[in-house]
Amino acid sequence: MIKNSDVFILLAVTISFFVSAYLWFSGQQQEGLFTAVWVPSILCFGIYFKLMAIKGAR
Fold first, then answer.
1. Nearest CA to 5 among 48, 57, 55, 56?
2. Based on the structure, what is the number of domains in the chain?
3. pTM of the entire structure?
4. What are the per-10-residue average pLDDT scores of the chain (58 residues)?
5. Which burial class, exposed, middle or buried, applies to 20 when counting CB atoms under 10 A from its CB (0-12, 13-18, 19+)?
6. In 3D, which of 36, 33, 39 has the Cα closest to residue 11?
7. What is the Cα–Cα distance from 58 to 55, expressed in whole angstroms?
8. What is the number of other CB atoms lying within 10 angstroms of the CB of residue 17?
9. Which residues span the domain enclosing 35?
């Protein structure tokens, strides 16, 4: 029951997480923290549109 949009959202979250981890451990803590904030934002974005799709299907 996983749709293409779910895969793209999870892919964006994964990329954001690994970029933030790379930045953090390469010594760029400020940039790593900024990028790490994207992870919950992207997840919330995906959840919102998933709920809107469920609501629209009713």
1. 48
2. 1
3. 0.83
4. 89 96 97 95 94 87
5. buried
6. 39
7. 6
8. 15
9. 4-57
